[in-house]
Specification:
Elements (H helix, E strand, L loop, with lengths): L26 H20 L5 E6 L16 E4 L7 E6 H7 L3 H20 L3 H4 L1
Parallel strand pairs: 1-3
Antiparallel strand pairs: 2-3
Helix pairs in contact: 1-3
């Protein structure tokens, strides 16, 4: 006998996602994956581990750094007191500037490369 009930005549209860179909991922999850992919790709190109903590925040803080003009797309916090450097990518401003998924992936890669280049004291073009 089935333990599922037909509550209020709405039919039998079933799983929320079909077994062969993965549950949906959110835009935030996909953005996080883009940031990780960009960092891993850069590590492979440099053939070295970056030693960075990666973070994604929705929007930049309201106090921009003196060298930032306009809305920041990412920010690098240098290593200090035994803590590794931290690279933050700001999701909403980056998504706002991209028209489609391909452009979004390219922009995320550009932001990550620019910040890592700043950390290494190199030109971003050298890292591409």
């Amino acid at each position: 006998m089935s333990t599922r009930r037909d509550r209020r005549g709405h039919g039998l209860r079933g799983p929320l996602a079909r077994p062969r179909i993965p549950a949906m991922s959110t835009r935030r999850d996909r953005f996080d994956e883009l940031v990780l992919d960009a960092a891993e790709s850069l590590e492979r190109r440099l053939d070295a581990e970056l030693g960075l903590e990666l973070a994604v925040e929705d929007v930049p803080p309201s106090d921009p750094a003196p060298w930032e003009h306009g809305v920041a797309l990412g920010r690098l916090f240098p290593a200090e007191r035994g803590m590794p450097a931290r690279l933050v990518v700001y999701r909403r401003p980056v998504e706002h500037r991209a028209r489609d998924e391909a452009e979004l992936a390219a922009l995320v890669t550009e932001v990550v490369v620019e910040q890592v280049a700043r950390m290494l004291g190199r030109d971003p073009e050298d890292l591409l």
